[in-house]
Design brief:
This is Branched-chain amino acid transport protein (AzlD). This protein is about 80% helix and about 0% strand. By secondary structure, the chain is mainly α. The chain has two domains: about 40 residues, no CATH class; about 45 residues, no CATH class. Helix 2 packs antiparallel against helix 3 and helix 3 runs antiparallel to helix 4.
Amino acid sequence: MIMMTIIGMAIVTAVPRFIPAFFMGQTTFKPWVNRWLNAIPFAALGALIFPGVMNVIEDRPLIGIAGGLIAAVIALFNVNVIFAVLGAILTVFLLTM
């Protein structure tokens, strides 16, 4: 019974992910829709990261904000994302010393 539940959950999860892959290749959108769809990953990433930036240190949210700003500035130079992450980590580390 447990195995059937796991298989059922896998099917229910996989089907909505595979259906768009088959139909999106045949669909064309207007340019403004494509721009909007391309922005969704960045908006989702921001929504996931921002609460963590505010809670790096509970009683000192400005340290997290400083780390986030440094990461944003580094990202503006179009370098690899790992350098933005390392810059934010270094900033938070130095401000908490």
